[in-house]
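Write out this protein's structure.
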Amino acid sequence: MKRLLLFFIAIIVASALVLAGCATPATPTPAPATKTPVPPAGPVTIKFAFDMPKTGAIVPGWEWFASELQKQSNGKAKVEFYGAAALFNQKDTPDSIKAGVADVGNIALGTHSQLFPFNYIFCGVGIEFPDLTREGFLTKYKAYQELSQKYPELSKELADYKLLFWCPNPAYRIISKNKILVPDDVKGVKLGSPTSQAGSVTKAAGGVWVQAVPNDVYEGMNKGVFDGAFVSWAHVAVYKFDEVANYFLDYGFTQEVQQICMNLKTWNSLSPDIQKLIGDLTLETIGRCSDGQIAAAKRGIDNVKAKNKTITAPTAEQKAQWDALTAPMADEWVKAAQGKGFAKAPEFMKDLKALRAAAMK
């Protein structure tokens, strides 16, 4: 009996060993694959929102870009425009682009100095490049490209976006109800402007700065909210400021820059050929934006003259007074930039001024 019991136990043990050897080993769970953006199969529609009216001087350049993008991509990409702040206003533009409310929008650098304190110097008083020639606009853009490669602090400020274009505007002049020739004429005067640089000029001269975008200037001056404003010659034509201002001081104080930025997710979803095409269209787009602004600036000057309003070019002595008032602002920016971690701000300013001096010859 014991022998029989031991025999059965031996059979059970042997069977267990055989079954264990035949068992399929467990398959390890594979690590999740890294997801890479897959370009959409069909045509891509890019929503481009901007705050100025569709008649804005810069808009034809963007329309040319949209037309060429669709044509040269054989219909693989097209642009839909939403002008006149139809989707969001300028104040909300940076956050709206990041959130994807639109794929592309114009971020007015002068309006968002707090978000882009290093890049903002390109709107600085005394940093204006030639603003009534295509070459002048392109030279300023190329100066930005050169300096942003040498000083990464500039491009890091735009890390949340894909910068497509960088379009300077004509320099701002002072328009006013009453004559303004020298800084003393600004004392007690309320001047509207979207940029804090122009605000600094107003305050330094003893005036009162009222923050206002160009859309606000006509009604602001008409209703006496402010006595004058910093606007460009192109603005004069587009917004009909010759109807509410009597005097136009032809001295360039600050030069707005439109940063045309794309939502990063949208950019990464585009196929490489579309991305390359956008890059290839950049310089001509900037040039055509410049052409529109130069033509509008000429219309602005012509409209003022047609209404027998007064355009004053400052004398050498008057210009010297404005230069003396604004000269310290570049040094103030350097100190502020160093305090925010831009250690090479003095070298950067030296390079920027050298590029500007070469362009102004």
